[in-house]
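User: Could you check the structure of this?
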Amino acid sequence: MLDKENIEKTNAWPFVEAKKILRDRKKNIDKKGKIILQTGYGPSGLPHIGTFAEVARTSMVVNALDYLTDLPKEIITFSDDMDGLRKIPDNIPNKEILNKNINKPLTKVPDPFGKFNSFGEHNNEMLKNFLNNFNFNYTFKSSTELYKKGFFNETLILILKKFDDIMNVIIPTLGKDRQKTYSPFLPICPTTEKVLEIPVKEINGKDNKIVFDNHGQDLEVCVLDGSCKLQWKVDWAMRWYALDIDFEMYGKDLIESAILSTKIIKILGKSNPTGFAYELFLDEKGEKISKSKGNGITIDQWLNYASPESLSLFMYQNPKRAKKLYHEIVSKAVDEYLNFIEKSKTQSELQLLLNPAWHVHKGQIPQEDIIMSFSMLINLVETSNASSKEILWKFVKKYKTNINEKNFPIFDKLVGYAIKYFNEVIRKTKKYIKPNDDQRNALNELIKKLEGCSNGMTPEEIQTEIYTVGKENGYKDNLRDWFKLIYQVIFGDENGPRMGFFISFFGLNETIELIKNKINNV
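Assistant: Sure, the predicted structure tokens are below.
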């Protein structure tokens, strides 16, 4: 069990948020004897890595709460699958199916993949599958199911009674044209099944009905049992109210929506949950990752190249800072993960609470020794031409004797990931350079120096010899350019491993032959 004083001192963000929940929502939590956290998902497109981030980060808050209170906690993953399909995602097959069903609730749109009863159900199942693969503890709730079963009816009646008050909050935020047609309630057309955005003519609060102006025709609809759904900002407030939510994360693009939903839930008579606005994920071009575009790296792609723990660690770090998320970022995330595991071995409890690996592993950080960095392993894939785990392991054992794969489960998985990552991602980015005469002479001097070294030298001693060659061959004032040359010739990149360590592992003779081959074959 953690020392209470250390829990009080730590400023790790999951603990900061957990303390805030217990402080700000104390009366509500004490009344129901439970803490309820929500994550939202709009299944108008395939689940993407941002969706995973919300559940992963919320789970980290729950882990912190577990050290602060014995009260039960529940994460509700809510799918807004009754929302109307507004546009066709770029990464979907059979687009003509979706085109024919624009503006219908997502659970009424046929599945273009042909696997489930609807597009909404398909995306919901994808969401649940990958959350289950990460062993997240959550409760899935469907907007369609809760509307149609009447779960929201009591709150919908309350919203109808507070119609004018809610309109007074929303209308000033809209343009003049939108003000004329806006309604918090969106009727589902009984003939077309489409979600309609049409103005209200009359409210019959006694019978819980609204008369809408459907392009000149009166359309009377009961607001209960799924015959209507709510506009987004009112719908969000309704969920908070009906599900009694204590905490929810959301992207910074939803801050204005959160402000309005906060005003609406207060009109309904409850206080808003504790909020946490996080920065957005960007692709390599700096554009927002979108489920409709399918840009950036997918969860499946990340897990093809690296461990789930490395992905969780990436999600933990700096949630309030915009982060680029693309293929080349994976190796850096893995190395940071390994580095945090190594650091944990000598850290105090207070320091551990700030270590991302502690939050990724719920306080149980693995104690495996780190053989080498992932980036180093990727370089070995290239230089050894290893095409399988078995071959790469044989190569590792050649220089690291008495290693048993069973004792290094993290590294064993990295061996397989490195081969895939190099072949499918890194190989495409390689840009080997042809050295000019001066550069070739410097590299030949490096070969001579290495030929004079012995296998018994330490990595630091070999590194010193490499420094010496650089200083003696025109790089005295900028050794960074010297190592940049080595990396570009050997690895086809401006960056690379610490050469002393690489050579001591790869072997002196092997490195000499590698440099010779690169000089002659580029």
